[in-house]
């Protein structure tokens, strides 16, 4: 880099070479630096792609596990107890309810299955379980819906990348 930045005439004088040869040398050095930068950027992009593939594989394996695992969901029965009894008003686990109450952006802390459960929940029951008004519970459900949609788009994008990369491997 230093040799590239030195003026042609100064470097030519120091090396006892013509300015033309020094210019060729500096151009070659610049090409080497450019190629190294391109290689560095390519490595970073490849690392990001591989990381995305790992993430996709883990998401897909979790989805496959979730689909294969037997569901332990229970029907919620209204026992006529007070509205402060969350087990009677919502099918959400205590852990999910705690995350919804305590976290600043709970939709980012929940996995996709929990986001789906929050979306399926009745807004009034959710508001009652959290001790919030219906409007705030509705806003939470909207944020969960947006986060779930974003995750699904990311998975679709990763599938598209994977199919594109597989297609390129088969080309001669």
From TrEMBL:
<keyword id="KW-0175">Coiled coil</keyword>
<dbReference type="InterPro" id="IPR027296">
    <property type="entry name" value="DFF-C"/>
</dbReference>
<dbReference type="InterPro" id="IPR015121">
    <property type="entry name" value="DNA_fragmentation_mid_dom"/>
</dbReference>
<feature type="compositionally biased region" description="Basic and acidic residues">
    <location>
        <begin position="65"/>
        <end position="74"/>
    </location>
</feature>
<protein>
    <submittedName>
        <fullName>DFFA factor</fullName>
    </submittedName>
</protein>
<feature type="region of interest" description="Disordered">
    <location>
        <begin position="65"/>
        <end position="88"/>
    </location>
</feature>
<feature type="compositionally biased region" description="Low complexity">
    <location>
        <begin position="77"/>
        <end position="88"/>
    </location>
</feature>
<dbReference type="Pfam" id="PF09033">
    <property type="entry name" value="DFF-C"/>
</dbReference>
<feature type="domain" description="DNA fragmentation factor 45kDa middle">
    <location>
        <begin position="2"/>
        <end position="118"/>
    </location>
</feature>
<feature type="coiled-coil region">
    <location>
        <begin position="8"/>
        <end position="42"/>
    </location>
</feature>
